[in-house]
Amino acid sequence: MERVKEDRPITIKDDKGNLNRCIADVVSLFITVTDKLCREIRAMDEIQPHLWELMETMHCMSHLPPDFEGHQTVSQWLQTLSDMSASDELDDSQVRQLLFDLESAYKPSTASCTLEPQPDPWGMWGAS
Length: 128
Prior knowledge:
Distance between the termini: 38 Å
Radius of gyration: 17 Å
Shape: elongated
Order of helices and strands: HHHHH
Number of strands: 0
C-alpha cells in the first residue's frame, strides 16, 4: 500500500526498508567487475551486464546524492562499452583506467553507508 500512496510503481526498485541489501549489492558488483578485470576478462559482453547492474543499483540507493560522481563514472564506461562489439575487449590502458575509476567511485559510495541493525529473533546477540 505504501507504494500506491507514494505513487511508486512496483517495477521501480528502491532501498526503502532494504538499505542493507542495496549496500551489499553495490559492494558485490564493484567486487565482481574488479575481479573480472583482474582475471583478464575484458570482453564487452562479459563486463557490461555487471556494470549496468551496478549503475541501476546505485540509482536505487536513496541516500546517494543525485549528482554522485560514481553515477557519472559508471555511465561514461557504459557508453564506452556500448560503442564496442560484444567480442571487443578493453585494452591494457582501458582496464587500468576502469580499475582506477571503479576504486574512486567505490570509496565514496560506501563511505556514507552504515548497515542498519537487524533484529535478533533468537536473542543470541543482545546484552544479557
